[in-house]
TrEMBL record:
The chain crosses the membrane at residues 54-74. GO terms for biological process: phosphatidic acid biosynthetic process. Residues 110-220 form the Phospholipid/glycerol acyltransferase domain. It comes from Falsiroseomonas algicola. InterPro entries: Plipid/glycerol_acylTrfase (IPR002123). SUPFAM superfamilies: Glycerol-3-phosphate (1)-acyltransferase. Keywords: Acyltransferase, Lipid biosynthesis, Lipid metabolism, Membrane, Transferase, Transmembrane, Transmembrane helix. CDD domains: LPLAT_AGPAT-like. One of its GO terms (molecular function) is 1-acylglycerol-3-phosphate O-acyltransferase activity. It comes from the Bacteria. This is 1-acyl-sn-glycerol-3-phosphate acyltransferase. The keyword Membrane applies.
């Protein structure tokens, strides 16, 4: 007589033994993988693109260094014009287009106040504004970048409060010579999704500027299409990521676009103190950045004046 196999309710609910001894491994889909941007890039093609851009940038930089060194010795402002040419060629080599909304103030010296999310801000603003940058002192210790920054008349400042007063005097001296200055009052780079609070101590030099002009910078295109939230880490350089790693990750992708909004300049004398000026500039910069991140049309804004109590 054959035995008939019957499953009881408890047997049916009993879990069967897994034949696979190790769990299934899934590949990650992060910006380093195959789905890094809106177009999707191929690993081999991306590496070739990054290598080509790196070699081109190094070649152009080594050509520009002796030219700019000579122009710095000669009288006139030819070194300033060549500095803008240098940045424009860099943007072209890296595939970065720059769109400018508004007009830069010509009443030098001007203190340009901008948000800061990446080293790409320097390239984009360098093509647009006739001004020198204020950078953290650590930049003056980086190989090659240190040389390029010094040839561009960059002012290096420390982030410590004890050194702020002395370095503010250096910035005032440069502005006293008629040079405009580009300042990043956030004191560091953000993740590209917000504007960090401004440090009012950086605006202590505003009393030597004829005008203060807020500037908004957002990277709003990648591969010809609107950049979305997941694309922001490709442009933003923050945290502990070194500059070469960030460049290599970005350079593998198709070109992008930076939109610069030059807001209406203001008279620093219209504000009672530097905190009020910093708050007003931060407000208009943040509003314009939020508008551009939503891929909406943007126009230059006017910084609000302080309210006078009745």
């Amino acid at each position: 007589m054959e035995a008939t196999a019957r499953l009881t309710a408890s047997d049916a609910l009993r879990p069967r033994r897994l034949l696979r001894k190790s769990p299934i491994q899934f590949s990650s889909a992060d910006p380093e993988g195959l789905w890094g941007d809106v177009l999707g890039f191929r690993r081999l093609g991306g590496r070739f693109r990054a290598s080509r851009r790196l070699v081109s940038i190094l070649a152009w930089t080594f050509i520009a260094i002796p030219i700019q060194a000579l122009l710095l010795v000669l009288p006139g402002r030819a070194n300033v014009a060549f500095g803008q040419v240098y940045f424009r060629v860099l943007c072209w080599l890296i595939g970065l287009k720059v769109r400018v909304v508004g007009e830069a103030s010509r009443q030098a010296p001007v203190l340009f106040v901008s948000n800061h999310s990446s080293w790409l801000d320097v390239l984009a603003l360098g093509t647009t504004l006739d001004a020198c940058f204020v950078a953290k002192s650590e930049v003056g210790q980086w190989p090659l970048i240190r040389t390029v920054a010094r040839l561009g008349r960059t002012l290096f400042v420390s982030r410590t409060r004890t050194a702020t007063k002395g370095e503010a005097g250096v910035i005032r001296e440069r502005m006293g010579q008629g040079d405009s200055v580009i300042l990043f009052p956030e004191g560091t780079t953000s993740d590209g999704g917000r504007v960090l609070p401004f440090r009012s101590a950086f605006l202590s030099v505003a009393d030597h500027a004829r005008q203060v002009q807020p500037v908004s910078v957002v990277f709003d295109r990648l591969g010809g299409l609107p950049a979305c939230r997941r694309d922001r880490p490709l442009f933003a350089w923050y945290g502990d990521t070194d500059i070469f790693t960030h460049f290599w990750r970005l350079a593998r992708h198709p070109g992008g676009r930076a939109t610069i909004v030059l807001h209406d300049p203001v008279d620093p004398a219209d504000y009672p103190d530097r905190k009020a000026l910093a708050a007003a500039c931060s407000e208009v910069i943040a509003r314009a950045c939020a508008t551009m991140r939503q891929n909406r049309p943007v126009v230059p804004l006017r910084a609000p004046l302080p309210r006078i109590p009745a």
